[in-house]
Write the structure tokens for this entry.
Amino acid sequence: MALAFDAAAQAPKGVAKIQKAIVSVNTYDKKGDLLNSGTAFYIGANGEAIADYSLFKNSYKATVIDINGKQADVDCILGANDTYSVIRFRVNTKGNATLTCAKDTLTSQSQVFVVPFSKEKLKQCRNTTIESQTRLNDKYAYYTLASDLGEENNGNPLFNEKGELIGILQPSLKDKGYALDINFREELKIKAISSNSENMALNNVKISKGVPESVEEALVYTYFKSRSAGNDEYLDIMNRFIATYPDNAEGYIRRCTPYIDLCEFDKADADLHKYLSLAKDKASANYNIAQTLYNKLTYQKEPAYDKWTYDLAVEHIDKSLELYKDDKAKIADAKILKAQILSGKKDYDGAIAIYEQLNADSTTASPAIYYAMSIASESRGDSTTAVIALMDSAISKFGDPLPGDAANYVLRRGRLYAQIDKNRLAVQDYNQYCYLVNNKVSDLFYYDRSQIELKARLFQQAYDDINTAISMNPNKVDYYIEKAAMCLRFGYNDESIEACKIVLSANDKDVDALRILGFAQIQAGKKDEGKVNLQKAIDLGDENAKEIMEKYCK
């Protein structure tokens, strides 16, 4: 007992200074209600702090309070590890006190002290000794302590006799205490590519995240986030990127995307100007601005933004063409974008002239350019035969046998054939498309092909395809209507009746189903039943049912 008392009466060197860097932390849930309370401690003068991860799990907001009662919000999370329950974050504060981290790990029998958050001056602290240590990742110490320092101290900082920070206290087990090396903070980073466990640890904290500590990794990180994060989250990420790397041009062009999606066009426009002023490669910058304007004008027509026009996009793409000089590949890309922009402003002649120029050069001609040219040609009002000829050229560019990349080209040509009732040719293209995509097609594909097969008088194929469409999507009412009509035409009256009944079980006022059912019943010799259903269709205003009634039910 005497020994325990003597140990408790000790404190690390400079404990009063240490106390200034230890804060109380409160975390809150989505509703703003208190979630957890505990301790954190500053390890960086810019508000960088460490705490027990469990305090922050599922939190949406956090605040810290220092020993003087000053409160500050947690700005962002800098890294987290759920396995060892430790989190690194930044607080909105200036001039905060910081702890000095020990350079060397401790050996066995070294004395250590735990310092809790306290507004009162501490003259004594609970202490113990190092019993042993193991290594994590061959870099960090994981200490076993000779005694348990109390559950209430979990997550508190642990110091050597000099008052240097050596670790963060971990949960005890069987009267033994444990501490994680403070240098483990080097693992607590936002990374461009994180492990599943790292992602889960971060995603379970809803507070904003920081960005990686190198601009190269941060750019990769923001790229991946652009594909998964919502506009608000991505905008927050890009704001942090720009705050961290204000002279990096790429941040401003990337921030345009959420601004445009959120219809904050003046801010997006300001970012484009800033991007152009900072960009070292002015040719690519003008190209990217033209692409951004084109995307807005083409895919987000409303609300309109008067400052951004197709003519402005042409100005930027022309500037890029001027600056690219002898870079043939980039010039070709810029010409393709210019043709797209001209098509957007309905200058199809100008767009087609560019496509023709590119296709005339064997080094730039490609299936994609012929495909785009066919779109412009169709939009200009050229004959479907002329458009099909362009698709023929596009497909021929792939060579023989056709690769999977040609699938959509073949399908487009098939649809064009169907438009001019060259249905057998259309079916051939549909069949080839199915082969090129390894039969990985939707129910809608089978439905569409069945319609073309019906016009081509390929009745068995049409019947098989409509049945396949139904098997893939049995809740699609339109398919049953089509099957009912098809079966009626083939004389499969019982199947037609059954298909109509399925439709009417979902909607007993479906006029098409009532009319087809009535006619199928008449054809099947059930004239009285057929008349009843035809009359229902007539009562609902169906003139076709009236004609059938007059012709077959006199």
Remarks:
- The longest strand covers residues 71-81.
- The domain at 211-276 is CATH 1.25.40.10 (Serine Threonine Protein Phosphatase 5, Tetratricopeptide repeat).
- Residues 1-9 have pLDDT under 50 and may be disordered.
- Residues 289 and 398 are 32 Å apart (CA to CA).
